Amino acid sequence: MHVLKVGPREADTVLVLVPGMFGAANGFRLPARDLVAAVPGVQVWALDRREENLADRTGFATADPAAYYLDGHYRSQDPAASGYVAGWGLRLTLEDLRAVVLAAGAGGRRRVVLGGHSWGATTALAYAAWDFDGSPGYRDLAGLAVIDGGVLGAFEGTGAPVHDSPEEIRRRLAAIDGGAVFDLTLSGVGLGGRAESSQIWYQLAGWYAHHAPAARSVLQPRLPDALRLPYPITNAALLGTLVDAGFGWPNDISVHAGRLAESGDVRGWIDDGITPLSRVAAAYAGPEPAVWEWYWPSRLSVDLDITDAYADTDLSRSLGLRLRHGTALDIPLYAFATSYSHGTVLTAAGRVAAASRVPYATYESDEGMNHLDPLFAGPDGNTMTRTLSAFLERVRG
Fold first, then answer.
1. How much is the CA Rg of the chain, to the nearest whole Å?
2. Cα–Cα distance between 176 and 118 in angstroms, integer?
3. Which of 53, 82, 128, 215 is exposed most, by the fewest CB atoms within 10 A?
4. Distance from C-alpha of 375 to C-alpha of 378, rounded to nearest angstrom
5. pLDDT per residue over 267-326, tens digit each?
6. 362 pairs with which residues across the strands?
7. What whole-number distance in Å separates Cα of residue 186 and Cα of residue 183?
8. For 337-353, what is each residue's pLDDT tens digit?
9. What is the superkingdom listed in this entry's lineage (predicted)?
């Protein structure tokens, strides 16, 4: 596993962050910088799950990344040769995460606050409730920080139902056994049908927008017809058309960045939102071009859906999920919600606190943000980093 570390090594408190679905560590680089600048004594670690090793990112070191990826020169992970990924579910993810948490804690010399974004928040809460051979996960932690995700109905307001009925689980597990080891949700964006197609397009768009923002778009002629504008645009503008909420993208994959220039031989991008496009591009470009995870295991999706119940049930036990300690949590909780869930993220966090021994909880929201804005918004407009900073200061005492 790779862990991105931002902030002073001598920090007495480490915030360990878990990316959401299709997310990778570099998506936390910018908010991590803002958090450590705001709270002396805090270091931020961001985790890349083991499946990150399946991605071929070498093309970004070539002279022509677009040709490397779009002309098929990269190493694609063949699902037919990836049967071992069928077992990469929540148990393995939490075992990996615990190695990171224990390293961050340095044998009890540092406090560890565990958090995550979206399904990363679900993962963090699962860790806290997990039974690690008789040791509850929450005992490794000084606090929890869930960002736009969670359990107990956190995602109800998004309109995306949790698929966790026994019949659905049996069907999904049968599909995995049949070779569908990678989740193809992002292929619905319209940028290709492979597990990694959309992620490659997003990373390429960010790379060119960072390295040559005002130049005529390298990628525009290669876009699918349905996504190609009828006039030339810059590299920055092309990234904007793929990530900005103004172009009709769903809340869970968009930000509030700005708008296209209304005129010009080659139309550029105008920042007038809380998330400057240059910050999105900088995160996408590196130093490691890893904001999107290419190969999300289908089994992890199954397990995280089951985790929504946040209980030790017959179904969870049948899949080896050790969610035994959710009602025993005795550490502080921070929860942040954007417009994504229409309030259910905070309602669900309140259920977690009410059903446990959480000593205090902080609930914050910003309806002006979309799901990805907390990862890229500028520090002046990022309600999440501002309020999470205050929570971390309180945990530190």
1. 20
2. 23
3. 53
4. 9
5. 999 999 999 999 999 999 877 778 999 999 999 999 999 999 999 999 999 999 999 999
6. 334
7. 8
8. 999 999 999 999 999 99
9. Bacteria
